[in-house]
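FORM 7B: Structural annotation worksheet

SECTION A. Query
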Amino acid sequence: ISSLTNAQEGTSKWIDNISHRGLTGNVEASNTTKILASAKSDNLKVSLWINDDNHVNLIEITGTITHDGKEFSKLHISPE
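SECTION B. Predicted structure
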């Protein structure tokens, strides 16, 4: 989260019947190695949804993501 550039408030999202604030920004793929250790991509768009207790409940990474030989355009990460 600390490596986000061009961060701005994003759209809200309902998760498990609770409203979450949205935050979007850009990140260089080299800053995502803790999440995607073997991923190869360019700059990525990251969206986060945070509840009233400041817990991140969903992360969406959008861009060309190559991981284990497969290519993805979007990745969702949740605490579940």
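SECTION C. Observations
DSSP finds no helices and five strands in the chain. The CA atoms of residues 65 and 72 lie 5 Å apart.

SECTION D. Sign-off
Analyst initials: ____
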